[in-house]
Amino acid sequence: MKNIEYCKYTYRHRKAFSYLVDKLIKDEKIRKEMEKRARFHDLDKMTLYLFIDKKQASSYHRKTSFHHLENNLPKTFYDYLEVIIDFECAGYTKPDKPLNAYDTISEIYRDRIDKNIYDLLINILRKYNLDSSYSVSDDRFGVDFIRQYENITEEMILYEILDYTSHFSNSSFIKLQAKIIEAINN
Predict the structure, then answer these.
(1) Phi, psi dihedral angles at 152 (to 5 degrees)
(2) Ranges of the chain with pLDDT below 70
(3) 158 within 8 A of 8, measured Cβ to Cβ
(4) Residue 119, domain extent
(5) pLDDT of residue 175
(6) What is the pLDDT of residues 50-104, one digit of tens each?
(7) How confident is the model at residue 170, as a pLDDT?
């Protein structure tokens, strides 16, 4: 399987994302939306990894995903919350990105994004009590939860990708096919 290590990395990241949605989001309406997002978070990228190199897949994902600050796509509250949870879960699974969401936003993105967006992100962090520096390793339950995903198989990855592609409507799946072809050609 092409890019299997990147697929495993993303698989674990997705499990951390789901864990944090469950841990952080108590409001039923917000929780329902974020659980939907958690189900498919980064699966476009993981699917692209099967066909193209990591750099192309990651670049395309950042340009076309609403939960990335590097693009100019219009964003909703839920997109910004997904940004924050995405940053927050990195510390659980990505040794190369050990910062929590607050540190990532204040240290890396503060001067890269519009001040209004920065303030909005800080307010969301505050709402979920994530507005300080700390190590995610302090969350022993979360660390133990993620530890169960150390041995990821190709079958586990393929199951998630098949689930993802089978739950697209026909028009959306055609769009995914077009994304794959576009990414391969770029």
Answers:
(1) -95, 135
(2) 168-177, 186
(3) no
(4) 4-185
(5) 66
(6) 988 999 999 999 999 999 999 999 999 999 999 999 999 988 887 777 789 999 9
(7) 47
At 93 the pLDDT is: 87
Take residue 133 and report the two structure tokens written for it.
């520096």
CA gap 77, 52 in Å, rounded = 32
CA angle 13, 15, 16 (to 5 degrees): 65
Would you say the C-alpha torsion 138, 8, 164, 67 has a positive or negative sign? positive
How many domains, in total, are found in the chain?
1
How open is the CA angle 122-126-132, to the nearest 5 degrees? 80
